[in-house]
Amino acid sequence: MAAAALLRRIPAARAPPTALMAARTISDSTAPLTIETSVPFTSHIVDPPSRDVTTTPAELLTFFRDMSLMRRMEIAADSLYKAKLIRGFCHLYDGQEAVAVGMEAAITRSDSIITAYRDHCIYLARGGDLVSAFAELMGRQAGCSRGKGGSMHFYKKDANFYGGHGIVGAQVPLGCGLAFAQKYRKEETATFALYGDGAANQGQLFEALNISALWKLPSILVCENNHYGMGTAEWRAAKSPAYYKRGDYVPGLKVDGMDVLAVKQACKFAKEHAVANGPIVLEMDTYRYHGHSMSDPGSTYRTRDEISGVRQERDPIERVRKLILAHDLATPAELKDTEKEIRKEVDDAIAKAKESPMPDTSELFTNVFVKGFGVESFGADRKELRATLP
Amino acid sequence: MPMATASSSLHGTAAALHGVGAAASSKPRSAAPVARSVRVAAAARGSGSARARGGMVARAAVAANAVAAAESKSGGHELLLFEALREALIEEMKADPTVCVFGEDVGHYGGSYKVTKGLAEMFGDLRVLDTPIAENSFTGMGVGAAMKGLRPIVEGMNMGFLLLAYNQISNNCGMLHYTSGGQFKIPIVIRGPGGVGRQLGAEHSQRLESYFQSIPGLQMVACSTPYNAKGLMKAAIRSENPVVLFEHVLLYNLKEKIPDEEYICCLEEAEMVRPGEHVTILTYSRMRYHVMQAAKTLVNKGYDPEVIDIRSLKPFDLHTIGNSIKKTHRVLIVEECMRTGGIGASLRSSIIDNFWDYLDAPIMCLSSQDVPTPYAAPLEDATVVQPAQIVAAVEQICQ
């Protein structure tokens, strides 16, 4: 098989492992590889895309690396939170990495992504770096929002990542506004507006979907259905949990959100559809291992068996690991090494982020208004601290 | 180049517009009672960004009355306030292709108060957008479009309806520039008619300026004449900050002659309506007219009130206001907001913080009653401040 011909692998009996370890590399082949998604797509008023996804060994290994990095970042954030270096609200994404990584693989940086508060990994997927992420979580100057946003307010304008929003559902109209601007400028790009199964019951989503459909905007509404809206299970919050059908006159696709290749295929399909025909709804069937946030143990409304069951059977990283090993794209040891490198990378980033200082008090008043076009005041009486008026 | 007058400059705004990172200090302005109006025509028209880089220097009218237009080189033209707003929209939309309008019935219907009449025919359906009745989402969409570089103008058919979009206005519109560490600008204009009309009922007679005033990051202005309506609308569209422009249901048919040349009004400046010596009356929007009516009576009684239309509801123009207080030592605030938590309450507080030593009498504040606006005409009249009450208040202050 073609893939096997491109492998570089050490046959066991050849030379002392240590010397050869250094010379060996994991497959970075770009020869196409076709893999079937775990389950077929379920669709609503549209023909679903094929179950066969084209990828390459290099891409699969990137998926493994990126998802492992995200996983490691979130676990590290958990420890930092418990060490009281991260305060307030911290919503972790571990378990859902396939959505962030698969989406990014299907689109370009000219497409826009907007999400809610479980945004650390999407920030990374959009090209954000670990140091800025950790620094923002710890409220430092080097943070991506200069320490003034926090966990729920990560943004990266140059990568068309629009955040980072704390109020449930409010980002979806913003996302449709981004799509409007894309259409206004004839950009041929799309906006992915992510929200959760809890937010799916917000009226403003239906409003925004209606407007998007009327005006044929390239908006893709992506429901990251992790089956719990904080502590309320989806069957207790939604009369109809078929979120991909909620668009009614808008087509929808239900996707296994733990299968990065399925996510990639669905997002590619959705982007083509949205740019040509207007909005589409994607429902990603996914799962979060942590509770809703760090203040939620996550086990009062679901059983530990359920959590470990999903981890056993559907973990996105394990799925990719199995694929890589099954196709001989790397050895278990190499993957372990990758994980070790990632761990070190994350630890180094945390150390570097810790060195960044807290923002100066004067930063309290910066960026309230855009300076240079009038207002430089912060309250009704233009006072800044105790400055006197001239 | 316009007939610039030397002294008036704006709190560093001029310098700031030219890219100098000015601090908040400004040059002292005399509260000279001479009615002077200064208008500056735009510098090179062209792309929005060229304009933004400092083509405009904005100066406020010191007296917004017929003197302004009379000094216009070509005589000026007369129009109604809603037409002035419309002219501003047309000029800005012609100049900058990123300006677009969202609202209910703004397009094909022409706007419920005719502010956008004819715009859809001129600019097309992609720039003048009829939205469904979904304030929360279309305001949010406006914010999203602004994040991506457009300059939307969101119209609330009645300001009161924008309460449905309060979350979008407060959290996204006001705060995104801050929470993103300065990455995103939200150059949106949110406008619409508010205030107490003629028996429109409680829900259609709301004053949202009191609800929005504490949202950080938001600027608020209230127009009251065709001249300042056009000027403020243009300035609001050009501002890189989110601006809420409060219009009033009863003022749309005011007629005035405005200059033919292009002009804008400074967003943060107050307007000297009638210079005087005895008392400073601070007001805005429709109450300006009640105050001016009361002023006629007061003048006959021998009083000399100084009337200032504060125009900028957030932030207050404490320079103009302060200079006036330093002269008259007495302050009366006349507003249409409710007594509780209104603009007057904040203004009073700011004046006390900044000008306590100059006051010879307690600041009086006349506001609307803390009641839902009733339907019946006499009750509705009793809800808002009437000229007779203003006269009585001045007599009391000046004792």
UniProtKB/TrEMBL annotation, chain A:
Q: Where is the Dehydrogenase E1 component domain?
A: 66-360
Q: Which domain of life is it from?
A: Eukaryota
Instruction: Spell out the protein name for this chain.
Output: Pyruvate dehydrogenase E1 component subunit alpha
Q: Which GO terms describe its molecular function?
A: pyruvate dehydrogenase (acetyl-transferring) activity
- Which PANTHER family does the entry mention? PYRUVATE DEHYDROGENASE E1 COMPONENT SUBUNIT ALPHA, PYRUVATE DEHYDROGENASE E1 COMPONENT, ALPHA SUBUNIT BACTERIAL AND ORGANELLAR
Q: Mind listing the GO biological process terms from this record?
A: pyruvate decarboxylation to acetyl-CoA
For activity, the cofactor(s) needed are: thiamine diphosphate; Mg(2+)
Pfam families according to UniProt: E1_dh (PF00676)
Which CDD domains does the record associate with it?
A: TPP_E1_PDC_ADC_BCADC
Keyword annotations from UniProtKB, A to Z: Oxidoreductase, Pyruvate, Thiamine pyrophosphate
Q: How does it assemble?
A: Tetramer of 2 alpha and 2 beta subunits.
Q: What InterPro entries does its record include?
A: DH_E1, PDH_E1_Alpha_Subunit, Pyrv_DH_E1_asu_subgrp-y
What catalytic activity does the UniProt entry give for this protein?
A: N(6)-[(R)-lipoyl]-L-lysyl-[protein] + pyruvate + H(+) = N(6)-[(R)-S(8)-acetyldihydrolipoyl]-L-lysyl-[protein] + CO2
* Functional summary from the UniProt entry: The pyruvate dehydrogenase complex catalyzes the overall conversion of pyruvate to acetyl-CoA and CO(2). It contains multiple copies of three enzymatic components: pyruvate dehydrogenase (E1), dihydrolipoamide acetyltransferase (E2) and lipoamide dehydrogenase (E3).
Q: What is its EC number?
A: 1.2.4.1
Q: Which organism is it from?
A: Zizania palustris (Northern wild rice)
From TrEMBL, chain B:
- Source organism superkingdom: Eukaryota
Catalytic activities: N(6)-[(R)-lipoyl]-L-lysyl-[protein] + pyruvate + H(+) = N(6)-[(R)-S(8)-acetyldihydrolipoyl]-L-lysyl-[protein] + CO2
What is the main EC category here?
oxidoreductase
The enzyme's E.C. designation: 1.2.4.1
Indicate where this protein resides in the cell: Plastid, Chloroplast
Which residues are in the Transketolase-like pyrimidine-binding domain? 79-254
Q: Does the keyword Chloroplast apply?
A: yes
* Subunit (UniProt): Tetramer of 2 alpha and 2 beta subunits.
Q: What is this protein called?
A: pyruvate dehydrogenase (acetyl-transferring)
